[in-house]
């Protein structure tokens, strides 16, 4: 039912300068695999194989990563190093990759709108590679696809954050449907802790219905003068239905140095060492 996923990857990654001066932040490696590959693997696990990327200047390395490097692969053919490419080769063989550009950095809402030509008139996933998620049993996006089959509306992944950190997130409030699911009634982009309606923060996993594109077009610039997806989703919630899902799993905020280091340590200890 959902086959398409959008990856907004046009941001500058200024919190990782100077490393990101000439390299996309999405290509920063967690041990031996770039962030964006973890994101694509999560989408593929959820059955989303038609993948669109909203890129920007200096992001060609992402396109090159999801392509064949004939010279390098010829050099390592028949050696032990060849096995390191099995994961990325499987993605290249089983997924399709399309790209468009966000010329001006004008917010996540604008980036998603730029992806409309890659998505068309169907529901789709959105994954922010900065948020590296490890699901319990199945990936976070796969959990959300299951919910979409039931509710057929936009769905946001949320988690509880410390109250003093709400100014870094979109924050929701809503009517409880079950222990892990709420119907959204209010949404605020990066509220001051004293003004935050709850401590339930939106993280970088969405399933959106295609009417969101027209809603974004009618959404004026909000916080920081940017087109905020939070504002568009609030309009969608007020006129229809948006669900917020407290996912099962763990999230690392790899847009921050601390979260990036935590993710690296986790994968080194839990995954890399175990496979050696």
Short description:
With 276 residues, the protein is an alpha/beta fold. Helices cover 33% and strands 27% of the residues. Strand 9 and strand 10 form a beta hairpin.
Description:
With 276 residues, the chain is α/β, with parallel strands linked by helices. The protein has one domain: Spore Coat Polysaccharide Biosynthesis Protein SpsA, Chain A, CATH 3.90.550. It is built from ten helices and 13 strands. The protein has a five-stranded mixed β-barrel with strand order 8-11-9-10-12. Strands 2-3 form a two-stranded antiparallel ribbon. A hairpin with a 2-residue loop joins strand 2 and strand 3. The longest helix is centred in the C-terminal third of the chain and has 19 residues. It is globular. The model has no long low-confidence stretch (mean pLDDT 92).
**How much is the average pLDDT?**
92
Whole-number tally of structural domains: 1
Oligomer: single chain
Radius of gyration: 18 Å
């Amino acid at each position: 039912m959902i086959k398409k996923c959008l990856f907004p990857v046009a941001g500058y990654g200024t919190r990782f300068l100077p490393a990101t001066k000439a390299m996309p932040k999405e290509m920063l490696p967690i041990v031996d695999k770039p962030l964006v590959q973890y994101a694509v693997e999560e989408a593929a696990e959820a059955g989303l194989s038609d993948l669109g990327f909203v890129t920007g200047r200096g992001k060609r390395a992402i396109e090159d990563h999801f392509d064949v490097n004939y010279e390098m692969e010829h050099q390592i053919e028949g050696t032990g190093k060849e096995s390191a490419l099995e994961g990325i080769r499987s993605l290249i063989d089983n997924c399709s990759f399309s790209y468009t550009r966000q010329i001006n950095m004008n917010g996540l809402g604008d980036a998603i709108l730029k992806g409309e030509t890659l998505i068309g008139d169907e529901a789709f996933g959105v994954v922010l590679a900065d948020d590296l998620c490890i699901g319990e049993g199945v990936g976070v996006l796969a959990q959300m696809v299951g919910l979409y089959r039931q509710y057929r509306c936009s769905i946001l992944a949320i988690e509880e954050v410390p109250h003093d950190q709400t100014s870094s997130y979109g924050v929701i409030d809503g009517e409880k449907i079950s222990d892990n699911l709420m119907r959204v009634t209010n949404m605020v982009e990066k509220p001051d802790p004293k003004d935050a309606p709850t401590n339930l923060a939106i993280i970088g996993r969405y399933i959106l219905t295609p009417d969101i594109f027209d809603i974004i077009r009618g959404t004026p610039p909000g916080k920081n003068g940017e087109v905020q997806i939070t504002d568009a989703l609030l309009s969608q919630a007020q006129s229809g239905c948006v669900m917020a899902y407290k996912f099962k799993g763990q999230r690392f905020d790899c847009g921050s140095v601390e979260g990036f280091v935590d993710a690296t340590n986790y994968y080194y200890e839990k995954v890399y060492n175990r496979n050696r």
